[in-house]
Amino acid sequence: MIKYYKIAIVVLASLFYSCEEVIDLNIAEGDVQLVVDGWITDLAEPTQINLTYSAPYFSSNANPPAVNAIVVLRTANGLNDTLVETPVGSGMYETATTGQVGETYNLYIKTTDGEEYASIPEELVSVPVIDSIFQEFREETLFEDEGYYIQINTKEPVGLGDYYRWKFYINDTLLNAPEDLLYADDEFVDGNDINAFDVHFDPLKIGDKGRVEQLSISKNAYEFIALVQEQTLFVGSIFDFPASPIKGNIFKLNNPDETALGFFGASSVSAEELVIQ
Amino acid sequence: MSKIFVHFLIGFFIFLFSCSSLKAQEKYTISGYIKDAQNGEILLGSNVYVSEIQNGAVSNVYGFYSITLEAGEYNIRYSYTGYNSKSIKLILKNDTTVNLELGSSNVELNAINITGEKEHENVTSLQMGVEKIDIMTIKSIPQFLGEVDVVRSIQMLPGVTTVGEGASGFNVRGGSGDQNLILLDEAPVYNSSHLFGFFSVFNPDAINNATLYKSGIPAKYGGRLSSVMDVRQKDGNIKKFEMEGGLGLLSSRLLLQGPIVKDKMSFIVSGRRSYADLFLFLSSDPEIRENTAYFYDFNSKVNYKLDENNKLFLSGYFGKDIFNFSDQFLSNWGNSTASLRWNHIFDKKLFSNLTAIYSNYSYALGIPEGTDAFEWTSNIINYNLKYDLTFYPNPKSTVDAGVSSIVYRFKPGRVKGLGDETIFNDFELQHEHAVEPAIYVQHDWKASTNFSLSYGLRYSFFNNVGKGEVFKYANDITDDKENIIDTVQYSSSEIIKSYDGIEPRILANYKLNDLSSLKASYNRTKQYIHLVSNTTSATPVDVWAPSGEYIKPATADHYSLGYYRNFDSNTIESSIEVYYKEFTDLLDYKDGAQLLFNEALETELLTGKGRAYGMEFSLRRKVGLFYGWFGYTLSKSERQVTGINSDNWYDANYDKSHEVSLALIYTYSDNWEFSSTIQYMSGRPITYPDSKYEFEGIIIPNYGNRNGARTPSYHRLDLAATNNPKKNKDRRYKTKWTFAIYNLYARKNPYSIFFRQSEDNPTLTEAVQLAVIGTAIPSVTFNFSF
């Protein structure tokens, strides 16, 4: 709900004579930091952790991969599963282990420069199922383009403190612009039937396949994703939030005050698909 | 109450009595009101000068003055800038009332040149850092879209900055936007902006005068750290009925005023409405046509003179901004204020004012139908009763004293699911209540011909009271809701937390000679309520929060020193002031703080300190065919907050190192007046990323030093021409055209620089400079009156 006001205000402010210009800037280069991009889910697919390094802001190259690192997936119950870099030299580390509800996961990472990192443990909690998925045709409005939109029905279980995220794929491609980040907590909807819930903003055409994933996330993950959106989407108006570094959940073992960037999360997923007809 | 304060009070009154009872010679009082001859509006700050004693008085905010002299014969001159002065000869044998009306010298052009009177208030007054905003002058300078705006105009004064074009409010000497006490007929205005910040809520037609105190804040004002903007509405023409109005590109205005009972009772009503939405109808897109976007203001006042010694005023303001999108998203916000005042004169030497005040800021937004349907509302309401006394024992002394009590009611947020389909539950944050009593006393004392002193004390209290709940945290560590271990219930009116503080206010003036003086001041101010906002410019949905169990009141100590010098028979005033200001217990926020609908707001808060210092130079010519002002400010404003910027000091968002403004108004003929303003400001602090990284395909800027970089500088030239058609002269119906160009050379002044993924190629990143106004904006305004 808070988001509505943010969106409304950004739209309103842009009604004025604002004009934007891409400019050239010289920016001092900061320290290179390890970036962790990984998530363990209970879907039947391999768990993948992507390690890179931060790069100068205007670098036109992809961020360099962190290769030859030791990446270990651990649980409170003693799992100690070393991931394999696949393919070698890609910075992408994989294991066939999938997540289980009730288990608590964390990562251990040792990079080639000898630095050791660990993530703050994340509990994988259950997520309600998507009860139904359906399509709706909408005409163009100020906020939306004309086309087909997919909505879902689900139930929010009684009891505060649940956090959710939705991922949406069109024809197996994840929508991953900052505005596509969709997340919520249950503060205003606790215990309710959630009906006709919109899960994406870009319309689909007839024949397109839409896939919705409903993820349970932790409070830390919720705050991380919210900050990512705040720092990438809600910029460029007179109501900007203060620019700030985003704290993830990975820190150096020898100095917990030094962190790596990014996040390692754990989610239970319920997914549904629909081909627009 | 503090012992020191009691001792001070006792000592103070002993001092007063000793002053006034030493000479038991026959003394009488001359007192009365000084008003505008044409409409009976009061002239605040008029000078009353008694040649025989080379001393005098200044009329107060209600236009009242009082001088007590020994029996005898006196020559007294009454003067007010821009008005023809009047001298009277008086044989004082009894208490005498002299109500005087001064005629505006602008009526006849020729008169302007002869106003070279002994007008050296700038040098002699017990004021520093005070800007009187003359509505006539701001009507003469170029204005954005032709809308004469008090707040935009004061942003042109030295020591006043803004985050940027369109940002709400203003910043005074390194203070944040919520540190300004903005009063409309003594009622606090919680959000002074329309259209987010492009315009202010003050309809210039309805305003008599506005005064901005940047330093040397009198003891009668309290509750905010950095400044007071005291705006007074017109009383209404008590002599004849008048109608005036205007048509502009953005809004239309209409004002009616006149006597209800001539010379006894008058009224004024004034309305303004913007018609931005009218332009929406021109759009070919039916969806856009269904949008609504406008604001309006309604001002009114009635005043009634019961007799020579009693006057009543009732005034009110009501304004709103409304934005509706195709019935899909509705929102509105606005202030309403009301004040009832009773001016009573006891015995010519003692003036009193009793005021009852109501103020309410509210907003509502929501989605009216569908599964997301909800309505979200929030209010801050206050009731204030205050009693002010001004005592004029002798020409050397004026004593102000008073009591005030404010009762606050905060309703920070309520959400209601609408309709049957909605997924939202009803939810309301608990209301908060607070009481803020204060007492003050201040003595303005002309100790000798060269030295005068104003010293005062304000003692303020703040009680956060029930009914309410307060969370208790494990080990008192309030940084996470998970640390909540208990909830303490407070019953209605039970005190949850109390604060109090002594606020000394001292100002000294040492006159070097007739044309120059040195002034110094020290102010302590306390602020008990805080605007909780972490965006660059405050938004209309930000809420105010009281000090309480976890939020401490903020304090500022402000030292300033100034040199004042007048030139050319006092027609040119100049001043240079330096200041240093220290802030403690300022509120700040964690990164990504969730400030709305948070019942444990304390978990998102940080506390910091601030410092600001600078130098302000101002040069002003108030009279003549060519008049205007020049201002230059060199300043710095910084913050230090544990948890932000690695605990290092960083520049405040509105820190502008250099600021230059120049306003020139030239009266070319009876019919034409030309004006121009130039403004230059250093860039605003912003934060650059020092690297980037990728997470799930989103490229995230990794920001470095908070506010470590700056936008390019801001500068702008505006022009205006005002035409008074010749035919105005011989008729009652008068018209006026104003043509203006804002941002003449169409500079795209940067508001901010932000960083994003390129729209064409999301793997690339780019820096984007945002200009809120990127073009020259011409405007034409038509005004009429009869």
Characteristics of this structure?
heterodimer, A: 277 residues, mainly beta, Immunoglobulin-like, 2 domains, six-stranded antiparallel β-sheet, five-stranded mixed β-sheet, 2 helices, globular, B: 786 residues, 22-stranded antiparallel beta barrel, 6 helices, 51 strands
Characterization of the model:
The complex is a heterodimer of chains A (277) and B (786). Chain A has 2 domains: 113 residues, Immunoglobulin-like (Sandwich), CATH 2.60.40; 114 residues, no CATH class. Chain A contains 2 helices and 20 strands. The model of chain A has no long low-confidence stretch (mean pLDDT 91). Chain B contains 6 helices and 51 strands. Chain B is globular and about 90 Å long. The longest helix of chain B is centred in the N-terminal third of the chain and has 19 residues. Classes of the chains: A mainly beta (277), B mainly beta (786). At the A-B interface, helix 1, strand 1, strand 16, helix 2 and strand 19 of A face strand 44, strand 45, strand 49 and strand 50 of B. Strand 1 of chain A pairs antiparallel with strand 50 of chain B, so a sheet runs across the interface.
Give a short summary of the structure.
Chain A has 277 residues and is mainly β. Chain A is built from 2 helices and 20 strands.
Protein chain pair with the most extensive contact, residues per chain: A-B, 83 and 87 residues
Query: Which band does the percent of strand residues of chain B land in?
Result: over 45%
Radius of gyration of chain B: 27 Å
Tally of separate helices of chain A? 2
Average pLDDT, all residues of chain A: 91
Q: Which spans of chain B have pLDDT < 50 for at least 5 consecutive residues?
A: 13-23, 107-118
List the helices and strands and how they pair.
The complex is a heterodimer of chains A (277) and B (786).
Chain A: H1 2-14, E1 19-23, E2 34-41, E3 47-53, E4 70-75, E5 80-82, E6 84-85, E7 92-95, E8 104-110, E9 116-119, E10 122-123, E11 130-138, E12 147-155, E13 163-170, E14 173-174, E15 182-185, E16 193-198, E17 209-217, H2 219-232, E18 250-252, E19 261-267, E20 269-275
Parallel strand pairs in A: 2-19
Antiparallel strand pairs in A: 2-3, 3-7, 4-5, 4-8, 6-7, 8-9, 8-10, 9-18, 11-12, 12-16, 13-14, 13-15, 13-17, 17-20
Chain B: H1 3-21, E1 27-36, E2 47-50, E3 55-58, E4 64-70, E5 72-79, E6 86-92, E7 96-97, E8 100-102, H2 121-124, E9 130-133, H3 135-140, H4 150-154, E10 160-161, E11 171-172, E12 180-184, E13 187-188, E14 193-194, E15 199-200, E16 207-213, E17 227-233, E18 242-247, E19 251-261, E20 265-274, H5 276-280, H6 286-289, E21 292-307, E22 310-325, E23 329-345, E24 350-367, E25 374-394, E26 397-417, E27 427-428, E28 432-446, E29 451-465, E30 468-473, E31 484-490, E32 495-513, E33 516-527, E34 529-532, E35 543-546, E36 554-567, E37 572-589, E38 605-621, E39 626-641, E40 650-651, E41 658-667, E42 672-681, E43 685-686, E44 689-695, E45 698-703, E46 709-710, E47 714-723, E48 734-742, E49 750-757, E50 765-771, E51 777-785
Parallel strand pairs in B: 1-7, 1-8, 12-17
Antiparallel strand pairs in B: 1-4, 2-3, 2-5, 5-6, 9-16, 10-11, 12-13, 14-15, 16-17, 18-19, 18-51, 19-20, 20-21, 21-22, 22-23, 23-24, 24-25, 25-26, 26-27, 26-28, 28-29, 29-32, 30-31, 32-33, 33-36, 34-35, 36-37, 37-38, 38-39, 39-40, 39-41, 41-42, 42-47, 43-46, 44-45, 47-48, 48-51, 49-50
